[in-house]
Amino acid sequence: MNFFKIINLFLLLLFIGTTQNNVLADSHDVKENIEEPLPLNDPFAGNASLGSGTSIISTDQTGEREEMSLYNFKLVGIISGTFDSYVSLVNASGEIVTLQLHEELSDGVRLVDMTLNEAVFQKADDTYMTIDFKNKIKETDEF
């Protein structure tokens, strides 16, 4: 009976020893498989990588020629507080413009109201433009 216990113990130790050697044998090339992290931007693309993939598409083409037109911006943030409220807009080149309530984006286009999902601008001819987070711009006579 002791003979079988010794053989079983010997086989168990032999089995454990071979599995540990196999596991350790695969770790000899760890230094060769270490990869450097990739940079966040492509160093070979130059300035072209900064503006690629960012395009602002509007449903209406009027007013798109002006640089500070609402059609050239996308709504990225609304901050509403007890005393002050702000709206953040970004253009295609990545520049962020932050407007306070009743501040003008361009001549005649003034931020007059905001909700959780959209910002309302009043134009010089007393019409209104709304922009939401999906970049849908609507022109209305009243809001």
Which features would summarize this protein structure in a list?
143 residues; alpha+beta; elongated; single chain; 3-stranded antiparallel sheet; 5-stranded antiparallel sheet
Structure characterization notes:
With about 140 residues, the protein is α+β, with helices and mostly antiparallel strands. It has a domain at about 55-140. It contains two helices and eight strands. The chain has helices spanning about 1-25, 50; strands spanning about 75-80, 85-90, 95-100, 105, 110-115, 120, 130, 135-140. The strands form two sheets. A five-stranded antiparallel beta sheet has the order 4-5-6-7-8, with no helix packed on it. A three-stranded antiparallel beta sheet has the order 1-2-3, with no helix packed on it. It is elongated and about 105 Å long. About 10% of the residues are buried. Mean pLDDT is about 75; it is low at about 50-65.
Query: Into which percent range does the helicity of residues fall?
Result: 10-25%
Radius of gyration: 32 Å
- Give the number of DSSP strands: 8
Order of helices and strands: HHEEEEEEEE
Quaternary structure classification: single chain
**Class by SSE composition:** alpha+beta
**Major beta sheet, strand line-up:** 4-5-6-7-8
Unreliably modeled segments: 51-65
Helix tally equals: 2
Distance between the termini: 94 Å
The geometry reads as: elongated
Round the mean pLDDT to the nearest integer and report it. Answer: 76
- Largest sheet descriptor: 5 strands, antiparallel
Fraction of residues in β-strands? 25-35%
